């Protein structure tokens, strides 16, 4: 719980920093540097990080079109491939597992260098410098329900899943770092029912109302600490590190090479 509060606070501080930089630094002529389209996936942290990128670019003279809340990973990635957007925030291990279909890596720097090289070779996209916070996926329960079933760890949950209802985003069912991967790593994880509740606040409301027993969470979700939820221990360390970074089209970066320094300086 304390870890999730600290990480969420860090995200908030980053947003305040971006707003401060935008307010205090001398603005360039609007649009003088060029036009950029910034996208995001469909949850709050993505909106915040994408807005940071947009404000930093606007402060350096870019005209920025915001295309936020596009959808899940495959939709945002395809929008980038199609040229509908120029960049969006992505998570290093999401790129590794979901888009490159590679095995998990535990070292953060190795994850980054692997996805950067893989995206450049396969997609003509590249990754800029990642931010240090880790928005790993997690599984959370109310403390009351966890105590009722004697669950503290993923191993515990894997054996009790047949008695429980999971609430998750739709893509969690198919992703390599979702149910399929958990079943391979732990065995079990055959839930009585899986309700697709997206990535917003509805899944936490469903958990608190007793409509589901377990929720797929993100490590930076404020609802974890705010509702005093129990984050289960990933006792086999299935989930690797998920650092967020801008993923950008290589033709966009070739046209506007200054973007790399603008966004990398902020992540440092």
Write structural notes for this entry:
By secondary structure, the chain is α/β, with parallel strands linked by helices. The protein has two domains: 2-134 and 242-267, D-Maltodextrin-Binding Protein, domain 2, CATH 3.40.190.10; 137-231, D-Maltodextrin-Binding Protein, domain 2 (3-Layer(aba) Sandwich). Helix content is 46%, strand content 17%. The strands form three sheets. The protein has a five-stranded mixed beta sheet with strand order 7-6-8-5-9. β6 (165-168), α8 (179-186) and β7 form a beta-alpha-beta unit. α1 (2-24) packs parallel to α2 (44-59) and α4 (92-99) crosses α5. The longest helix has 23 residues, at 2-24.
What strand order characterises the main sheet? 7-6-8-5-9
N-to-C series of helices and strands: HEHEHEHHEEHHEHEHEHEEHH
Mean pLDDT score: 89
- CATH homologous group name of the largest domain: Periplasmic binding protein-like II
- Summarize the main sheet: 5 strands, mixed
The CATH class designation of the largest domain is Alpha Beta
CATH topology (fold) name of the largest domain? D-Maltodextrin-Binding Protein, domain 2
Domain unit count: 2
* Ends apart, CA distance between termini: 26 Å
Name of the CATH architecture of the largest domain: 3-Layer(aba) Sandwich
What value does the Rg take, in angstroms?
Answer: 19 Å
Structural class: alpha/beta
Helix percent band: 40-55%
What is the molecular shape?
A: elongated
Please report the total strand number as a whole number.
10
Fraction of residues in β-strands: 15-25%
Low-confidence stretches: 1-13, 16-27
């Amino acid at each position: 719980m304390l870890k999730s509060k600290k990480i969420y606070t860090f995200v908030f501080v980053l947003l305040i920093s971006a707003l401060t930089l935008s307010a205090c630094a001398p603005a360039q002529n609007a649009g003088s540097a060029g036009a950029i389209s910034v996208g995001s996936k469909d949850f709050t942290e993505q909106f915040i990080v994408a807005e940071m990128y947009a404000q930093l670019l606007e402060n350096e003279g870019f005209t920025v079109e915001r295309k936020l809340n596009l959808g899940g990973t495959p939709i945002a990635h395809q929008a980038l491939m199609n040229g509908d957007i120029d960049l969006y925030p992505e998570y290093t291990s999401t790129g590794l597992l979901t888009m490159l279909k590679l095995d998990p890596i535990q070292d953060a720097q190795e994850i980054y260098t692997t996805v950067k090289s893989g995206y450049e070779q396969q997609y003509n996209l590249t990754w800029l410098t990642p931010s240090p916070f880790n928005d790993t996926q997690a599984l959370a329960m109310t403390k009351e329900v966890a105590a009722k079933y004697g669950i503290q760890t993923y191993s515990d949950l894997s054996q009790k899943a047949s008695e429980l209802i999971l609430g998750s985003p739709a893509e969690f069912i198919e992703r390599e770092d979702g149910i399929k991967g958990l079943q391979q790593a732990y065995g079990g994880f055959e839930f009585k029912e899986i309700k697709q509740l997206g990535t917003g606040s509805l899944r936490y409301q469903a958990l608190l109302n007793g409509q589901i027993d377990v929720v797929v969470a993100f490590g930076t979700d404020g609802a974890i600490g705010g509702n005093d939820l129990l984050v289960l221990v990933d006792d086999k360390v299935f989930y690797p590190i998920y650092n967020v970074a801008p993923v950008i089209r290589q033709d966009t970066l070739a046209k506007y090479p200054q973007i790399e320094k603008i966004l990398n300086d902020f992540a440092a």
